[in-house]
Amino acid sequence: MGAVLTALGTLTAVVVAGWVLGRLRILGPHASAVLARLVFTVATPALLLVSIGRTDLHVLASRAALATWTSTAAVAVVAALVLRFALRRDAGDVTIGTLASSYVNAGNLGLALAVFLLGDPVAAVPTLLFQLLVLAPIAFTVLDAHRDGTGATSPQPAASSGSATRPADDTPRDLAPDDGTAPSPATGPRRAAAALRATLRRTLTNPIIVGTLTGLVLAALPWELPDVVYGPFELVGATAAPLALLTFGMSLAVPAADRERAPRADLTLAVVLRSVVHPVLAALVATAFGLHGEARLAVVAMAALPTAQNVLVYAIQYGRGQALARDAGLVTTLLALPVLLVVTALL
């Protein structure tokens, strides 16, 4: 497991550097928030554009990809249902908790593991694409709606005395009657259309989704773009992983007495799903799909990866679930080596 140890050691060193920066407050009190925004709006979209743009989309048609997507989707659905209906969390916390349970560190540790186990980084591609094309867009749509005031907990502006209540920002003013009369029959469809337009606007202006969609368009082109086109994006995208790790380290530098604690039930759910349930489920699904040997090992190994540090970046960007994202990333990273050793020994 030399390559895995090297990858984990490298990640740990960068996290420790972030912890030192945060502890000494070298970059100021708001550094982690600024770095998180930089990763979210600039570095990660550039990385996605290059990574997906150079991907062979035929890999999406493999049985390994189907097994990966099926097991990951199942874990995400279980996490969302438990968080929403058993633990009674709101939409924002459910979304971050679901990501902490299902969104893995495939971009850094996953690629190193794929190269070590199989000699081919392509094994990590199905996991990466599912996270970028499915999990991330759904999560950002929910989080954007929650932040913009369409979520249940977002406050609405108070109405002035004697005036009608102001409609939400995403609702056209002509849909809110100002004479106290009931809305016309056409109001319902018009409100639905306005909500759909608002959702599309939020989705298509999200930097990460824009980077992903642009990468898909480039990957679908019948010709290969020259390297000079990808060069600037590749240079900027290369900063995404180290900046996310530095942000993670800074979040750990907050004194324990001042640090928000993740709800124990939420953290337990994320760790169990991430480090135990997902690898086992991936093995069962891969076997059911007729995968054996290295193909099955690749699917299960990707499912055994720890929670990605990008989940913390997303949590900071949207101001929801930072403690859970931070603690889930830390605990599952500590468990990653023994879990991967067991997976490799058994398969």
| Main beta-sheet strand count, sense and barrel state | none
Helix and strand succession? HHHHHHHHHHHHHH
Radius of gyration computed on alpha carbons: 22 Å
Shape field: globular
**Beta-strand percentage range:** under 5%
Essential attributes:
about 350 residues, mainly alpha, about 0% strand, globular
Question: Could you write a compact summary of the structure shown?
Answer:
With 347 residues, the chain is an all-alpha fold.
Give a description of the structure:
- This protein has helices spanning 2-24, 31-53, 63-86, 91-102, 106-118, 125-148, 187-204, 207-220, 227-237, 240-252, 264-288, 293-303, 310-318, 322-346.
- With 347 residues, the chain is mainly alpha-helical.
- The longest helix is centred in the last third of the chain and has 25 residues, at 264-288.
- The two termini are 14 Å apart.
- Mean pLDDT is 82; it is low at 150-183.
Element layout with pairings:
Elements: H1 2-24, H2 31-53, H3 63-86, H4 91-102, H5 106-118, H6 125-148, H7 187-204, H8 207-220, H9 227-237, H10 240-252, H11 264-288, H12 293-303, H13 310-318, H14 322-346
